[in-house]
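[step 3/7] fold_predict: job queued, chain A
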Amino acid sequence: MTWRHLIFALAVASSAIGTATARSPIVGVASVIDGDTLDIHGQRIRLHGIDAPESGQFCEKDGKRYRCGQQAALALSDKTGQATIRCEQRDIDRYKRIVAVCSLGNVDLNAWMVRQGWAIAYRQYSRDYVDDESAAQAEKAGIWAGRFIDPSRWRRGDRLAVESAKEPAATSCQIKGNISRNGERIYHVPGGRWYEQTRIDESRGQCWFCSEKEAQAAGWRRSRQ
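[step 4/7] structure written:
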């Protein structure tokens, strides 16, 4: 083998090792960002093939609106707890997040979220969870118990009529979930330095929380001031 052939072989081997490393499973305790996004060891992971309501999104049930985006995040957080999660990478999305199928033991969390009615099958990218969605719809589980806007349409600005009403819970749910210019989710509690200056714009995904636990479960961190 000539030195040129040797260098080429080493380059190919190095590339293969790099690819294998990039595709290695991500394993650890997960922090829930929202109903279809996790963070493990600082790596942001988007759940493959599903789309959950956004954190600031409202849905309607029995003629009343509720925070379905927060409910989706809480459902995923309650399910994962402090258990070890294993995520198998499928892709990288345009936001540089890892797209993966994540499991808790033998439970496919992507399928579980859809089956519980807290996410829908993201047909634009996959049909893996269409059957789970059909089952959830038939049982009126989660968001299927009432009316909701498809999360992808909600991100484009579509809203239910009840979402345009003034936030009724602001007097009792006083924690402000703000999103900074760089996309960081920060909540402010009454008495905090920036609490009075902070304004909530639900069209940008900002929202009110009733407790710090609720805010943290939805992926917000407390303001340091």
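[step 5/7] annotate
Residues 166-225 form one domain.
Residues 3-22 form the longest helix (20 residues).
exit 0
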